Amino acid sequence: MVTVLFVHGTGVREPSYTQALEGIRNGLARVRPDVRVEPCDWGSSLGSYLRAGGVSIPGYPEYLATAEEAGAETAEFGVVAAGPYPLPSDGFEGGSETDEDRQRWAMLYADPFAELGVYAMSGKPSGSGAPALFTPGVISSGDQLLGVLSRLGASDAVRDAWRAFVSSPSVTEGIAALLATQELRQAVVAAPAEGDALPRLAARALTAWAMAQSPREAGTFPVPERDDLVDLLTNELGGDAKGLNDVLVSALGYSARLFERSFGSRMLVARRARLSNRSVGFFGDVLSYLTRGQAVRDHVADTLRALPDRGPVVLLGHSLGGIIAFDLLAAQASNPVADMLVTVGSQAPLLYELDALPSLPYGTGLPGAFPRWLNVHDRRDLLSYVAAEAFGNDPRITDVAVDNRQPVSAAHSSYWANAYLYRVLADALPG
Known about the structure:
- This protein is an alpha/beta fold and 431 residues long.
- The chain is 48% helix and 8% strand.
- It contains 19 helices and 6 strands.
- It has helices at 16-31, 43-46, 60-69, 99-110, 114-121, 141-152, 156-165, 171-179, 182-190, 198-213, 223-236, 246-262, 266-270, 272-292, 294-305, 320-331, 348-353, 408-411, 419-428, and strands at 2-7, 35-40, 313-318, 340-344, 372-377, 397-401.
- Strands 2-1-3-4-5-6 form a 6-stranded parallel β-sheet, sandwiched between helices.
- Strand 4 (340-344), helix 17 (348-353) and strand 5 (372-377) form a beta-alpha-beta unit.
């Protein structure tokens, strides 16, 4: 039996590691039931953490105290991943997205009700520049939406689809949260008498809210399942308009682009403490590994030696896990501990080109006994890199491009939700 040892990346702790492990097991089971996936959770025992409680980060201790009083989750640092494998036209099972749609989802991942707010501020969607006047006997599309929303939780189809997408919170909690927002109230006032884009925007808001409340990262939700839920909710809420008007399209597109650009400046400064809570483990693990990585490599090597029933063994590393796996194989090239290396969203090629890999100086190339290497990357994942050319086009290296159909902010954590990745692995793993 083929054994895949999953070496996680930066900042990953429980329960995120087990969620990713189960996702990989389920994904491979559908295409290669003969493959066994084993864990290698080095982060729990050897990962970095703030030993003084974060006193070095301005505002962090105060944020932590406030979050704990509110009952927020603060313990997990979660970031919680083309050779002979041609990239499909969409790089993924399902439809395709424009860059603008990805940007809009990035905005929704940060603020689930942002599109409704833009809708309300764009004025009357018909383009007249003012909300519709009250007409006796005519119920506006906004009021119709409120009525349907109040009954939406009673739909068996909606409840079943919601539970299949996210185990908690419930759809009734999502509806209550949406009904309580100022963005929805303002959007209802701005809605015209007849149908328009409001049902779909409300459906996207509900779906994004569910993802934001879940302990999972947004990028780990399969895009086809996300879009299927949006479609179902849209139909239940009254269906799509024939098309978005030019004013709304322009406003949504501009807002999404503005969000992407501004997120790196004023918003980051204002939210530094909360963002630090989620990113410190990410960067801390990288720095810790580059400084004291031998303990982590020894942990992976010990896990490999303890594997039962040794058949062909594949090291599967995501992000920093790919660097760890590469370094281990390079250091033990005279007696390889695995038959294949798979890196997903990894920085090993960049570190090699920068002459910063702990195990291999630039220009030396792969050691003679280094195994086959499959390197998977997504162009929107800014932490993924291409390997073959950096290593002198060594024939043992195959680069595979995938499209996780996620915005830049979520692309790095979304490989395990991409069905195309498992088709690639099914062909590439030893038989």
